[in-house]
Amino acid sequence: MPHDAPSQTRPVDARLNAAQDICSRNGAQLTPLRREVLALVLQAQTPVTAYQLLDQLKSIRKSAVPPTIYRSLEFLLENKLIHRIERLNAFVPCAEADHHHADAQFLICKNCDSVIEIEDCDVSDALEKAADRHGFTLNRAVIELDGICAVCTAKPS
Ligand SMILES: [Zn+2]
Ligand SMILES: [Zn+2]
Predict the structure, then answer these.
(1) Which ligand is nearest to the CA of 114?
(2) Average pLDDT over residues 4-28
(3) CA-CA distance, 69 to 53, in Å (whole number)?
(4) Mean pLDDT score across all residues of the chain
(5) Ligand 2 mean position to 88 CA, how many Å?
(6) Domains in the chain, start-ordered, CATH in brackets?
């Protein structure tokens, strides 16, 4: 599926409004708290952990406790607005929240921890077919790939 301008480059406000629309379509509510947590994930340059988010949230909401953050993250994950990078135990915003995807691939830079989400239908199809050959019903096909990003590769060592 071809993408227009990558949403990573869109301002946070625009992405928050887009998220609001997605939630309404899902019949879900992006409450002020959930919106704040999403804004924090969007503003982060690299994947953020729940504890980093909690720390940041505490500066806005003194009463924030771990369940506050976990429930919000759960909601954002369910509505495909963020992804969890298992390897880093951290969260990144979905690259193109407006699209519908059951699977995702992530390129994770070992050097700077940046994460690029790619959505390659050929990869997804190949995995589905491979699973099918084994009579395996695929629920989730998230792939995390290690390597060095273009920025770090270009840096003189
Ligand atoms: Zn995504
Ligand atoms: Zn890098």
Answers:
(1) 2
(2) 83
(3) 7
(4) 89
(5) 14
(6) 7-93 (1.10.10.10), 103-154 (3.30.1490.190)
CA distance 35 to 17: 9
> In a 3-state reduction of DSSP, which class is residue 109?
strand
Unique residue bearing structure tokens 């519908």? 100
Q: Output the CA 105–ligand 1 centroid distance in Å.
A: 9
Residue 156 has pLDDT above 90, yes or no: no
What share of the chain in percent tops pLDDT 90? 73
Q: Are 119 and 78 in contact (CB under 8 A)?
A: no
Is 0.90 surpassed by the pTM of this model? no
Distances (CA, A) of 127 to 104, 118, 131, 152: 12, 15, 6, 30
pLDDT band at 1 (very low <50, low <70, confident <90, very high): very low
Cα angle 89-98-145, degrees, rounded to a multiple of 5? 35
